[in-house]
Write a structure and sequence with these properties.
single chain, about 325 residues, mainly beta, nine-stranded antiparallel β-sheet, 17 strands, about 15% helix, about 50% strand, elongated
Length: about 325
Amino acid sequence: MKFSKLKLLPAAAALAMLCAAGSAQAGAYGYSYNNIFGLQIAAATGSITALNSTTISRATATLNGVSVINGGPGLLDSPRAAVGAVTKGENNFTQQGPTGNYSRGDAQIVSTQFPSFPPGSTSTQAVNVAEAHLDDPAGTADASGRNGSTTGFSVNFVVGSPTATLSFDFFSSPFMQVFLQSTVGQLSTATANLVVTFTITDSTGATVFNWTPDGVIGSGIFGGTESADAANLNTSLATNFLTRGNLFTYDPTGCGTPGGTGVGTACGGNFSAVSNALAAGNYTLTLNAVESVDLVKQAAPEPGTLALLGLGLAGLGYASRRKIAA
């Protein structure tokens, strides 16, 4: 029995060294962007009157336990949330790229047609970005980064006749990328997320209309009808240890990497829907648009540590065989 305990020591020591191994590994990267523009919300039929509206522009960033949250209700343009080596300025939604340790979020309602539903050319534009990169963190074997940005609005309105319907028409140019370098550890992940929802609730709080465009006409809608759904605006893009070393891109409308300030109106897929007839009464319309990225980078064990671990496990197996033979 004593011999067996002695033979367990190399394996235990190897496991301890593996857990304490320093990080000389590479990075994780995530980027999520969306530009919603030309948004027209109108009374397709019947009588609808807007009462008041609340804008919500919020940006968050978290890097290795340090968090920043900016903005909130009443803001059209949230101050940028930035942690670490962020080089992009306020309202610069283009990519900073996979370099350094940073996390950033930025959100802006560029223009809004509210509080009324005008029949003219007035429209709403909202742009969000979330981006983070984890480089080689000093003195630790793991790192995590998370950020997100949220832009939206809520409108209270009154339906004056039971035949009233509300129509939605807009363009969107979503773009996401994720990447893990080939030397990251087994539990490393990089995920980019995209959310766009339109919801109408009645005076009791019950949902009477909900639209989450998913790229398939007739799917992702409740209490209404779609006529155009160019891409999935409620989806994620992810990579992990098994798919490391590959750059994954989500560009369903073919607009490519956002250029300039990212606030463009030249390219985007079309989305259109109309609600079912709404009974006379009070309602609230809410638009929620969120871009976020989640990064977890685990350091791979050093080659020498792996060899030591192998020797320790081999010794453990040898000790077990000696114990059985005894």
